[in-house]
Amino acid sequence: MLSGFDLQAVINALPYLFLTGMSFTLTLTLFATLGGIVFGTLLALMRLSRYRALSYVAAGYVNLLRSLPLVLVIFWFYFLMPYLGQWVTGASRPMRIDPFWSSVITFTLFEACYFCEIIRSGIQSLPKGQTMASHALGLTGSQSMLYVVLPQALRNMLPLMLTQTIILFQDTSLVYVLSITDFLGATAKIAQRDGRLLEMYIFAALVYFVISLFASHAVRRLQRRVAIIR
Amino acid sequence: MSYNWNWLIFFEPSLDGTHTYLETLVWGAGWTIATALGAFTIALTLGSVVGVARTSPLTWIRALGTGFVEVFRNVPLLVQMFLWYFVLPELLPADVGTWLKQLPNAQFYTAVICLGCYHAARMAEVVRAGLESLSRGQRMAGQALGLNLVQTYLYVLLPMAYRIVVPAITSEFLSCTKNTSVALAIGLMELTGSARAMQENSFQIFEAFAGATTLYLALNLIIVFAMRAVERLCVVPGYGSTTKAG
Amino acid sequence: MITISDVCKSYGQFQVLSHCTTSVAKGEVVVVCGPSGSGKSTLIKTVNGLEPIDSGDIVIDGVSVSAKDTNLSMLRSRVGMVFQHFELFPHLSIIQNLMLAQVKVLKRSKPDARKKGMALLERVGLTAHAQKFPGQLSGGQQQRVAIARALAMDPVAMLFDEPTSALDPEMINEVLDVMVQLAREGMTMMVVTHEMGFARKVANRVIFMDRGEIVEDADKDAFFGQPRSERAQQFLSKILVH
């Protein structure tokens, strides 16, 4: 059963797995998180806006993307972006987009929907008194949102947003369907090249497990410290 | 835009010659539903057991439950799928492994079990949250009447816990339906996989994915409406409005 | 009927119960009172084993609560308990609340359990509400149902943990009336309460607890007339002003 387990194959592959694969995964996670939070905040503000048009557009976008599997969205954006690029730049043929940036845009636009819901609930769970107090002081609507509401909402929702980041980290493995070389893709490449499916996939599972476990424990500790301060 | 639109592609025969592309997509949706239902059944039963275990007064049972949840929550779904499909047959005795690999619809069974365990870990957390939201007095009241622990869970705690978490169960079921798409990586021809095949064979990219999108949205609506009906059945008259002196 | 001998219990460093010894004879009504944190709720929960004890022993009708081979489930079915927050089962109708334990623990048939339940609802004056759900009843009504639920098991003794503390003032009397009736019928009762009017009416003995200890354990008249300890005197003077 485990007689054919070859640890050496794993060790030999480590540089490729981590320098090529994991670096892709981590940078994608980082960029998509930042982009997702920024775009998600924008979407949340649109949903809570007084202007019905903005609110409906944002709600429609968020509800649409949340109803679709990430795999399908990955395919959509992968094929759509070259054509959009062509349309936007007026080129004669569909634009070729680097797989990394294509992934960043896809994940940003997708995860923004989930960040939007988190931030929206953060804003709505703030006591109304906060907005009233800032208005009473003379701050305009956008000033009170920028200086009073958002900072508190984001701080309150930090644990949830970090958890969403961990989910994002795991979701990046789905770029496999486009044969993009993230950590899982790199593992699969080695596995198929050397015929070492067993060792490589178990190793990949262990790496993801350790990173996610460590990260979620750190988030839980952070949650406990934040709770005490409040 | 240099793309050739052809919405009639749905009515043209697919590569196998006998079905139209539309039929292939609908067939794919069928596999999606079947996988989701199978997986969610496992998720509900296994997840309830683990969720209850996580509220047990016995430390070792709690630890087992926690271990289960942590393992299945910290590994990406796609990696789990590969482990079940590629690695498990290698770990089992040679003849069992071979039998597994030659099983017809192996991708379906693998996807059902893989998704079942993945969502069981999440259901466990949902059930645990439901149980923990009940007042301690409920367990005491059940035991004070002479019900043993199993009876207290079965007749007093779990019925209320499930009713409280119906919205979360709905959300998990929708999530499970979407997650069936990951099984295309092991070759299951569910909806996204069928759309991808259609795109590859017909070059009508956006029609294919638009078709899949429409079907997913339809599935979504059906599930949401069905669960709302379930929610209405589960309403406990008067709960939440007055739990103390009226 | 109930004997509590040298019971001690602590949560970590905090000593909740400290060498508590008392008893309740058959047909006796004993009221337990004291300031919050005195351990009176904990004490009554140790009687039917809902709270475990660190040392000492509790014996109900000859059966020890903490002995390893005691069938705790059967023992609990013979002792009724009424909680401060009623703790009716919200997902079951009133009559189902009364039937559940009869069927599952005492193995009575459903028709018998239903008959018994309806008879008890009649006794507490709530037959019209049999098909309703707990959330639809007022607090006083819920607590009367809770008493009926405990009585449905034909208990040899009844334990009450501050049964009226969570009720609005206008509903306290409807519950106390049921309890007074129960006492007059000869039920063995141990009641944790602040309702001294009830104590004066039907109690045989009053126990005063403070900081986990039983400070005073006297006949009703002796307790209200001339309590021996200063702590009890202070307590009585504060609550009897109302």
Quick take:
The complex is a heterotrimer of chains A (230), B (246) and C (242). By secondary structure, chain A is mainly alpha-helical. Helices cover 81% and strands 0% of the residues of chain A.
Give a structural overview:
With about 230 residues, chain A is an all-alpha fold. Chain A contains nine helices and no strands. Chain B has helices spanning about 20-55, 60-75, 75-90, 95-100, 105-135, 135-145, 150-165, 165-180, 190-200, 205-235. In chain B, helix 1 packs across helix 10 (about 205-235), helix 5 (about 105-135) packs across helix 7 and helix 8 packs antiparallel against helix 10 (about 205-235). Chain B is an all-alpha fold. In chain C, about 40% of the residues lie in helices and about 25% in strands. Chains A and B meet through helix 3 and helix 9 of A and helix 2, helix 3, helix 8, helix 9 and helix 10 of B.
Specify the helix fraction band of chain B: over 70%
Q: What is the structural class of chain B? A: mainly alpha
Taking pLDDT < 50 over at least 5 consecutive residues as the criterion, the unreliable ranges of chain B are 241-246
Q: How large is the count of helical segments of chain B?
A: 10
Structural Rg of chain A: 21 Å
Number of helices of chain A: 9
Largest interface: pair, residues per side:
A-B, 38 and 41 residues
Give keywords.
heterotrimer, B: 246 residues, mainly alpha, disordered C terminus, C: 242 residues, alpha/beta, six-stranded mixed β-sheet, four-stranded antiparallel β-sheet, 9 helices, 38% helix, globular
Architecture blueprint of SSEs:
The complex is a heterotrimer of chains A (230), B (246) and C (242).
Chain A: H1 7-47, H2 52-67, H3 70-89, H4 99-124, H5 128-136, H6 141-156, H7 158-171, H8 183-194, H9 197-229
Chain B: H1 21-53, H2 59-73, H3 77-91, H4 94-102, H5 106-133, H6 136-144, H7 149-164, H8 166-179, H9 191-202, H10 205-233
Chain C: E1 2-11, E2 14-24, E3 29-33, H1 40-47, E4 55-60, E5 63-64, H2 72-77, E6 79-82, H3 94-104, H4 110-124, H5 139-151, E7 157-161, H6 169-184, E8 188-192, H7 196-202, E9 205-210, E10 213-219, H8 220-225, H9 230-239
